[in-house]
Amino acid sequence: MLKKLSNYSTEIKIAFLALFFLIVGANTQTGWLYILSALVGSLLLTGWVSSRGTLKGIAVKRLPIAPTLKGKDSLITISVSNESTSDKRNILIKESIPEELRPELPLPEILLPDRRLKLVIPFIPALSSVTVSYTIPAKRRGLYYLDNICLIASVPFGMFPYQTSITAHDLLEVYPVGPQPSRSAYCGHRDLLEDSVIRQNGEGQDFYGLRNYTTGEDIRYIHWPTSAKYDRLMIRQFHETGAPQYSVVLCNCAPYEVGDQEDPGLEAAISLAASLAKLRCEHGVRVSFLALSHSAPSEAHTTDDSTAHSEHRSQQAASLHTQSGPFIVSDESCSESQALHLLASLETLPETSLEPLLQAQESIISQQGLVLLLTTTPNLRPELLARFLPNSEHCRIVFCASYPEQHILSTTVMAPAMTDYQDAAAALSEQGYFTIIHRPEDNLGTTLGQML
Amino acid sequence: MSTNSPSWQTSPSTHAASTANQSLAGTNRHGSRSSYQARQAKRTTANSQAPGCLGKWLEFIHRPKLPPEDSILYRVVSAITLTIAVTAALNELEWPLYSIAIYALTFSGYVYSYRFRFGRNIGMKLAICVFMFWLLFDFFNGLAMSLSDPRIPIAKLLLFLHAGHCFDVPRRRDLNYSLVVGLVLMAFAGVLSASLYFGIFLSLFTLMAAWTLYLSNLSACREGSWPCRVTPLDTTQVATANPSSSRKMRFLYSYHIPQTICTLLLFGVVIYCCLPKYEGLRLHTMPMSLDLSIRFPRLGKGEIINPAEDPRFPSSSIKHSVLADDYAGFNPIVDLFHRGTLSDELVMKVRSSRWSYYRGLAFTYYDGSTWQLSPEEPVEITSPVPPLSIPTRYMRERVEPTIQVYHIERLLPNVIFASYQAWQLYFPSDTVYTNISQNLTAPFPLEEGMVYSVMGGSRLHNPRAVWTMTHPNELNPSARRRMTAQNYQAGFDRYLQLPQGMSPRLKELALKLTKSRPNNYLKAAAICLYLRNNYAYQNPPPPFQHDKESTEQFLFNQKRGNCQQFASSLAVLCRAANIPSRFVTGYLPGTYNPITGYYEVKGSDAHAWVEIFQPTIGWVDLDATPSTDSSSPTTEPKDSEKWMIGNVLSYLKSQIPVSLLEQVGLFMQIVHEKLSTSTALTLLVVIPLAFIAWIAGNMFRSKEQELTLPSDGLLTPWHRLAIFASRVLRKSVPYLNWPKLVGPVADPVCLIYYDMLYTLKQAGYSRQPQQTPREFAKLVTAKHDWPEVSRLTDIFEIRRYGTCNDGVGAEPVDSPLRQEAERCLVELQAHLKGKS
Questions:
Q1: Nearest CA to CA, how far is B206 from chain A (Å)?
Q2: Between B66, B202, B237, which is nearest A32 by CB?
Q3: Which is nearest to B822 in space by CA: B804, B801, B799?
Q4: Nearest Cβ partner for A27 among B15, B270, B283
Q5: Less crowded by CB within 10 Å, the N or C end of chain A?
Q6: How high is the pLDDT of residue A313?
Q7: Which helix H or strand E contains B586, and what residues bound it?
Q8: What's the mean pLDDT in A360-386?
Q9: Confidence category of residue B30, pLDDT binned at 50, 70, 90
Q10: Distance from CA of B274 to the nearest CA of A (A)
């Protein structure tokens, strides 16, 4: 109650002033003070009535937000419609931006305690709509849910600000940015890539199934009869028999608390994976991703429907609380956006069982292809490593962690008690199968080229 | 200069660039904006490291603050608002020298605050601090010099505080504080003001303050806002939705100024009428007089000095001693056969904490046709500084404190008007005079413009309280002793004096009326009631015989008279019943002006009444004149006057000329007597209602129909009035958000279509203004299988735009189109009912 009253401290002061004038007027029998008291009271009443009337007939919706890359600006657009027959003025919109993306606000925190973006709509004519567009820097990779839009009106005198919250959930996707592979290392594998492209586009494709079409895919593969039947675009998916494939296994767990900060190791791994996703889109190389996630795989897909978003959020929250996880998330599609969506959704998990990842990895390794193990944990014990690397010729390991190289080698590969694996690990390292990077900016292009 | 256009920056980087540009601009002017931003950044990041209270204080000093206000318009409007308030206060105080200084300081302060709004201005702040300490010292000094009247020091303090504060208003919050200072100054000026001219200042201040608050809100919205781009989606809709935007009145329409001002005033009037009107709370430190230093030459030593005295007659011996338009009751001798012709000229304005008569003189000696003052010499009361303390002869028990401020509006005798019992007097003289009857006289006549205050008491006439105060069982021992001893007899002979040869009929009547009454008050009240019920008021009174005793003529022969005859008769009958009494002259309370809070007393409010003595209570006043509202000169306010609405209505009623009221009364009497009830009802109710209905019908008349009206030359005045009213109302329909009626509603087919629209609206399908009837029908039928909607729309279009539309004239009842339309509507309603 007191907190609610504190929002109206100015109005309470003015009301006390009116009451004071009334008391003094009664005491001194001054008629003008009665009038002054009534005028001040009228000021309050007018402010109260007007601020409530301003938001009548105002409809707000959020326009779809285009995914953006990390480091770029993200454009957010809100459509505000004035369905009433009177013009509206000075409507404030307050946006709750996720903590990770929140820009530096124009005023310090003590003056903007709610830390929300304040947008001003100076004027909306009657029976018309405006769009309010603003940009925020996408500082951090991830999937961010924008909450309700808060509308505030306090016209004409700034008293009794009336606010209402309108449901307008939406997903802001900030995709990771991958490095360009090193030219010298990359060219050595060009033949292999070109070969895979020829195979994909030519003969030797077996129909595998249908799935939803995503933006950017080749429209030649759209299955029009099914699309017409389900009223949405469906695209054919093919088995590529004999084509080489890359399996990227992201071991995104850490034995330490990351907190709200970015894990540099995970970011480096995801950057590499994003580059691979881009390669896949450009050259048609089959790349599948495996990683651990808090949420079930089916929930990690994006949709433009706000209702679905809210359901998604609730399911995600429920899964976090009721199911123990971790889940395996994978992507075998040919769409870069879906792969980036998957990568954007990954987080560093606390130290957890890698058993689901191992099982999924074993099934992948049973197929033909090259396995890239991008791991952020230094505690990848030799016995686990042995399970990851049954066939070292088809595996590449990248340790993405901010630990010293010696520490990683001593705790994982070069464990003294496991002498049987020391030779194997040394051999791997000598052959270039084993790479350690400390920071995302550490020559990722060269690393990527070497991996390929 | 602030503008209402949105900021069209598209990214924070652009915003930063803009800020940088502003920084550069600021660097050129006084080089302070960039330094201000650097200081702010430092404040945000650095925390005070000092421990304890010092650290907290430094933290408080270096707390982040809102950016300075850049809007010149806001500052100018705020300065104008303040100037209005200062002018209103200075106008009441009449300080020409201070005015120049305060105006100069205000103007230069606002200019300085704008030019150096980004600077620290430590030197100026120190100077303001020193200035304020000096003001505080001066205030306490002034307060010590005039403890009785703190308003002058307060006014000085407030005005110079405001002037000093003008040099330190860099931010919006500071400008809002200035507005509060202006409001306090207006309140201060309102306390001092006794005229309606203050309303001009108040109106201007209200308008400018509302504008200031509006601009303040704009500024508050901009503060800390994130740069964004606001783009209209469809400009064609804007143009059609607001056709007024292309007119000259666009400013008024688009800024909602008329709407806001009307709402403000409407709410103000409603709140004002609903306010309770309490009597004074009796805080004894407020009732002061302005400028008590005025001294007038001493012209007498307590004797009555009446400037209206007729120079042809010496006042001591002559009965007709005043000029034609003055009251003769403020002379040493009151002639009951001559009252004077009283004008409606304003005599004085009185701010009183309660409704009561204003007592002037009390007369003790009665000779059968005149009342005369007590012959003793007046006693001088002197005090070098106000107030003058008036010795009170009787106890103050059960006396309600009353505070009154008198503003003299025309030359009056040297009689100091006061409440029933005055204790303290704030008067522009160090000497006043009183006598045994508690008459207060000044050494000079009361000049126009003179102001004085009286603190005293009024006695409320509550029968229960009087019974409690007079019944022996309810009295304390000392009071009972006083009452039983009847010790007032010795000192009160003068108040029982009657002329020789009084008629025994008077004595008999008095005893008859007071028989079985237990005390003086109830006896006098019985006589008073008898006079009010059995005698009529008439002014001028019928002719009296000068050689006969006037009271006897009034009571037994004429039975009509003015207030002097009634008061004199009451006093004489009381004395005949052995009740000490005296004849009192003064003024009625006058008309209460709820706007200024003053009672406006006219010359015609001069009046005479009686004071009787009741042991254990003291002197109690009674009024026997039946034309007055109450038999008590001091009563509780009526229920209707306990609220402002009652006072406003009373004041408005008092402003209507008596002649007009008489004409209305005469008209009503004729209506009542000459016409039957049905005819009167027809005239007074049906015709006005029919006229209103006519206006309403014109209001919703289509433009086509309006064109068919006769030309202006053939219109009657009533017709013109109706058209004008209908145009005004029609224009105000969208403004007031009343339901819209468009088109020729007289056409029944169209009405049926509107019924269908209403029915569909109830079902959740509302036709948007931009939709054509066909588009709307298509939208509805696409969702529901309601073919009657399309059919009815077709009929409407045929009727409205088709070939069979004759423009005017109603569709016949048996018209196939109409029947079809009705059938469609019935079917649609059946569909909707079935659906629900």
A1: 8
A2: B202
A3: B799
A4: B283
A5: N
A6: 45
A7: strand B581-587
A8: 63
A9: very low
A10: 9
- The b/e string for B600-636 (b: 16+ C-beta within 10 A; e otherwise) is bbbbbbbbbbbbbbbbbbbbbbbbbbeebeebbbbbb
* Closest-approach residue (CA) in chain B for A126: B241
A119 contact residues in B (CB cutoff 8 A): 225-226, 228
Look at residue A37 and tell me whether its pLDDT is greater than 90.
yes
Contacts of B178 (CB under 8 A, 6+ apart): B78, B82, B162, B165, B166, B169
**Which pTM value belongs to this model?**
0.69
Separation in Å, CA of A79 to nearest CA in chain B: 9
Structure-model confidence comparison of residues B702 and A47, the more confident one: A47
Mean pLDDT of B448-453: 85
Of B40, B220, B237, the CB nearest to A127: B237
Give the Cα separation of A6 and A13 in Å (integer): 11
Cis preceding linkage at B637, omega within 30 = no
**B residues 144-183 lying closer than 8 A (beta carbon) to A:** 180, 183
The pair of three-digit structure tokens given for residue A163, joined into one six-digit string: 């606010």
Please, which pLDDT band fits residue B518 given cuts at 50, 70 and 90? Answer: confident
Question: Phi first, then psi: what are they for A354, rounded to 5°?
Answer: -95, 5
Question: Is B271 close to A45, i.e. CB distance below 8 A?
Answer: yes
Among the ranges given (A411-415, B524-528, B723-727), the one the predictor scored with the smallest mean pLDDT? A411-415
pLDDT in tens, A9-27: 888 999 999 999 998 888 8
User: How far is B268 from chain A, CA to nearest CA, in Å?
Assistant: 5
Shortest distance, CA A70 to any CA of chain B (angstroms)? 16
In terms of residues, how long is chain A? 452
Average pLDDT (B749-776) is 84
Mean pLDDT over all residues of chain B? Answer: 75
The angle subtended at Cα B710 by Cα B707 and Cα B716, nearest 5°, is 125
Residue-wise pLDDT for A252-266, tens only, equals 776 666 666 777 777
In 3D space, the residue among A64, A108, A95 whose CA is nearest the CA of residue A163 turns out to be A95
Instruction: Determine contact: B272 vs chain A, CB below 8 A.
Output: yes
Out of A29, A38, A117, whose CB is closest to B351? A29
Please list the residues that pair with A211 across neighbouring strands.
Answer: A235
Take residue B346 and report the two structure tokens written for it: 């304003």
Q: What is the pLDDT of residues B688-708, one digit of tens each?
A: 777 766 666 655 554 444 444
Given an 8 Å threshold on Cβ–Cβ distance, is A120 in contact with B10?
no
C-alpha to C-alpha distance for B820 and B809, rounded to whole angstroms:
19
Contacts of A120 in chain B (CB under 8 A): 6, 221-222, 225, 228
Provide DSSP, A285-311.
-EEEEEEEESS-GGGG---S-HHHHHH
Q: Do B237 and A110 touch (CB under 8 A)?
A: no
The pLDDT assigned to A189 comes to 47
Residue A440: cis peptide before it, omega within 30 degrees of 0:
no
Q: Residue B615, CB half-sphere, CA atoms under 13 Å: how many?
A: 22
State the amino acid at position B360 in one-letter form.
G
Residues 31-60 of B with CB under 8 A from A: 40, 43-44
**Interface contact flag, B242 A120, Cβ < 8 Å:** no
B193 touching A, CB under 8 A?
Answer: yes
Residues of A in contact with B281 (CB under 8 A): 23, 26-27
- Residue B217 has its nearest CB partner, among A86, A90, A132, at A90
> Which is more confidently placed, A307 or B613?
B613
Distance CA B454, CA B289 (A): 9
pLDDT tens track for A71-110: 888 899 999 988 887 788 889 998 888 888 888 877 776 6
Question: CB-based contact (8 Å) between B737 and chain A?
Answer: yes
What's the half-sphere exposure (Cβ side, CA atoms, 13 Å) at A362?
A: 9
